[in-house]
Amino acid sequence: MEPRNQEGGHLRAGLLEKEPLQEVDEEMVSEVDLNNTITEEEKEEMHNELTKLEEEIATLRQVLSSKEKRHSELKQRLGITPLSELRHNLSRGWNDMQTSTAYKKTSETLSTAGQKTTAAFSNLGSAISRKFGDMRNSPSFKSFEEKVENTVTNIKSKVGGTSSGGSFEEVLSSAAQASAQDIPTNNLPENSERTC
């Protein structure tokens, strides 16, 4: 190790080095044992402080152990079980969460989203109803409706004369009966003779 002057600089051939440290000097500094820079008095002070801290830590551990034991005894005497503690902690945690700003903002956002979704479905239902109404009023639907009415009227007139009225089911039932009467029970032609 190079000798040092009173200001802590390195001496080279009796002169104070005025140039900044170079790479070679940095390598030498990193190899210096840091324990050599501590005086014997400082080492002794540090050892004394270390011993004192270790004693304080041991004392604090004993105090903590004693307090934990008393804590456990009090809980046992009060009937506080781990399960009831867990319930209490969960309840308090749930309450804390509900009062948090993040929960409130999320809840408000979900509520708003639900309202908007409900409004969207309502608007969709209204739009579909309106489209069906528009479709029913359209000329092509009116034409179809008229054709169905004419067909029903024709069926009614063929089945039961000119009587009007009756439900759609009655008309279908009458039409089914009329078609059953029109079907011949005999598959033989009428003009052919039977031979026995």
TrEMBL record:
Residues 157-196 are annotated as: Disordered. It comes from Astyanax mexicanus (Blind cave fish). Keywords: Coiled coil. PANTHER family: TUMOR PROTEIN D52, TUMOR PROTEIN D53. Pfam families: TPD52. Residues 36-77 form a coiled coil. It comes from the Eukaryota. Residues 157-167 have a biased composition (Low complexity). Residues 174-190 have a biased composition (Polar residues). GO terms for cellular component: cytoplasm. This is Tpd52 like 1. The keyword Glycosyltransferase does not apply. InterPro entries: TPD52.
